[in-house]
Write a structure and sequence with these properties.
Length: 365
């Protein structure tokens, strides 16, 4: 029996958390794998994993300083005695190393879901943490998983990791039932994510301004919330887009939101393999997105979406207006769904991780 412990924060319900939930849900199917999960917050991820029948331990990071958090984690790891510890994000990487790697035989794996903000804009404390994380990943972890090619490059170039310890495993999702696109007098273009600077939703409002100046029958929506909401509301009002641009807030069930769209838009400054794009494509939506990060590994320009090489709103607007052609929109949407089914399924993702776990567990220490 291969014992695998996942360590994650669980403070949010965003792309990384959805990926972890999907992965654990699929790994349950392997009868020679025993799963356990350690989360640092009691939140939606904990509830979703428990609903799968997988045991979840919570060590609340808001109630412990790092030293007690470390000791509780170490005791739990010692009790579970996992063969594999799979960590996600910086603090979890550090806990995995200190609690499971030092003096233990557990194999350490991390998955990097995206790139951090530039260290130039970080304070000295954040830069120190970043350096520690890079050292641990490059010298103490057995396997480094990047969800995209640019992240694998970060492991090799910034963390100085042995390329043999680095691999690329794309995220995957469960395919929803297909629903035929609707025909109506207007179309809806939308996006989903947290309202943080990296998502650059101010650009999406600029895009909406360009589009609605040329076609009043296109509406815009964003599902999500965050600290930049007041800024976006001000910008929407400034451009008199109140009737054409709606902020839908947090959606517990995203399926109805995607079903209500005709086009999906991403405006991020950088991305790994965005779960929201995969979800949109799985619902048969063509995607208009910037040519950055792992997005270029998902979308074939002109086939299942459009990649925009600039951050000019008029360049995004041109493709959105082009997709007002129903036949083109349907053709590209079907191609997008087919690609997810063939290359980005949750089953395929889990199989790749299972094979990696097995390979590492059987590797001589």
């Amino acid at each position: 029996m291969l014992k695998v412990t996942t360590i994650a924060s669980g403070d949010l319900w965003a792309g990384a958390e959805v990926m972890i939930w999907q992965l654990i849900g699929q790994l349950r199917r392997y009868r020679d794998v025993e799963l356990s999960v350690l989360l640092l917050n009691e939140n939606r991820l904990a509830a979703e994993i428990r609903s799968l029948g997988v045991h979840v331990d919570i060590i609340d990071e808001s109630k412990h300083t790092f030293i007690p958090l470390f000791w509780k984690t170490r005791n739990l790891i010692k009790s579970n005695a996992p063969d594999i510890i799979h960590a996600h994000r910086y603090k979890e990487n550090l806990l995995a190393f200190l609690a499971g790697g030092v003096g233990n035989k557990a194999v350490l794996i991390t998955t990097q879901h995206g790139m951090s903000e530039s260290t130039v804009r970080q304070g000295i404390g954040a830069r120190i943490k970043s350096r520690i994380n890079q050292y641990l990943l490059g010298h103490q972890f057995n396997s480094l998983v990047g969800v995209s090619k640019n992240i694998s490059g970060f492991f090799i170039n910034d963390c100085r990791a042995n390329p043999k310890n680095v691999c690329i495993l794309h995220n995957g999702i469960k395919l929803p039932p297909y629903q035929l696109p609707t025909t109506r007098q207007y179309s809806v273009a939308g996006s989903a994510g947290r309202f943080f600077p990296v998502k650059d939703y101010t650009l999406l409002v600029e895009i909406a301004k360009c589009v609605t100046n040329r076609d009043k029958n296109i509406r815009f929506e964003i599902a999500g919330d965050g600290p930049e909401r007041p800024k976006l509301e001000t910008q929407i009002s400034k451009y008199s887009l109140d009737g054409a641009f709606h902020l839908r807030g947090h959606q517990h069930d995203m399926a109805p939101f995607y079903r209500g769209l005709d086009i999906y838009i991403n405006t991020s400054v950088h991305e790994g393999i965005p779960m929201s794009i995969l979800e949109a494509m799985s619902h048969g939506l063509p995607v208009v997105a910037p040519k950055v990060g792992g997005i270029v590994e998902i979308i074939d320009d002109g086939i299942d979406g459009f990649l925009i090489p600039t951050r000019k709103p008029e360049d995004f607007a041109e493709k959105i207006l082009l997709l007002q052609n129903f036949e083109l929109r349907m053709k590209m949407g079907l191609a997008a769904r087919k690609k997810v089914e063939q290359r980005f399924s949750a089953e395929h993702m889990a199989q790749q991780y299972y094979e990696l776990y097995r390979q590492l567990a059987e590797r001589p220490s």
